[in-house]
Structures are given as C-alpha cells and as structure tokens.
Amino acid sequence: MPLDSYTTGPYLGTSRNPYSYEKIEQVGRDIQTQWLSLEEITQQLNLFDDISQDNYLTSLEVATRMAIEDYLGMTIFYAQWRVYYGSYVGMTGTQVMLDLPEVSQANQFNAGTVIDLVQYYNGGNPPQLITLDKSSYYYDPTGNKVVVNGLPDSASLIMTNPIIVTYTTNASPLAQYPVIKAAGLLLLTHLYNNRSNTVETKITEIPFGVAQLLRPYKPLVM
Asked: Which H or E run contains 45?
C-alpha cells in the first residue's frame, strides 16, 4: 500500500510514520517472574553448589529477560502499553483502524493481545477522557490493530493525540523455545562476565551469538 494512503482515510497517520500511532508508552510490566531458573543459570556459569551470588543472579536474569523481550518486540511475560493516535477529522461514522506497535502470539493458554481500553478526549473545555464500550471495537490479530466502528462527533478536534488505546501483551509461547533460552543464557553470561561499561581489549561478536539466535523470531508487522 502506498505511503500516502496512510496519511488520509482510516489510517490516521499525520507524519512519515507508516503506522497510525503517534506515541507509545509502556505502563506496566512483569519484573518479578523468573524465566531462566537458577539451576539453568548456575549450570551455564559453572557455579555449582555456590549460592552466594543467587540474589545477584536473580536480578541479572530479570535484566536479561527484559533485554530479550525488547529485542524481539514480543513479551515473554505480560507487558501493558498505552498508544496515542492523532487527529481523526472525517472519521465519525466510519471504521477507524488503529495500529498497535507491540505484538504477542496467541496460544492454547492465552489470547496473546488483550485490548484493555479504547478512549478518546471529547470536545469539552477542558476535554474529558471518555471510554468506549467494548462492543464498539474489536482486535484484528491478522493485522495487529484495533478496528473501531466509528468515533463520536463529540471527540476533540484540538487535542494533539485525542485517541488512546491501552492493551496488554501476554506471555509468548516463544519463551520456552530452546533457541530463545539459549540466547538468554548467552546474554546473561556476557553480562555476568562484563560488569563494566568499558573494556581494555577489543570485543568481537561470536558466530551464532544472541542476535543470530533471536533474529528469525523477531516479528515483522506490516
């Protein structure tokens, strides 16, 4: 689809960003649940029967998991996002398609992506944030977007980003893939062995390192 078609019509784009959102915030994230077990970590680091560093290794595991999630653009455990969309002039009474930036794969245990709230600012002075009824929109998993069945005439035309979607990406089945865990253990080993931001010797990336293991699983959303 030509880029110009994203700047008018139901795609809402007001900039050169080919997607319809203008701004995204991460508003919630699981920073407690352990992904790599202490047994897996101590085996990887050859720290057999050494429990003196368990607290440090646990915190390092969370940092590693978050870095893997950020690289993939896909959550291993839940995260919540708030996305803002620009002016929708001419959108009342027509379907509005709202792209989502982060994805999660559904499986037999969860729905992958859950739309928590779709809201808009009305034309009041000052504008008030109104929550749409869940019956007025649905999630399109094939395009990773929210389809809203028209926005009210009362929506604000002066707010910079009057439409807001809050949604949750649930745990991905990729989290248990051996190749994803191997990448996590590689990255954790690097962080454990290099506890400074500077080094004295030149570092070269090893073949089949973290990026090489993860790249095939990095989702492409068109």
From this structure: helix 38-45
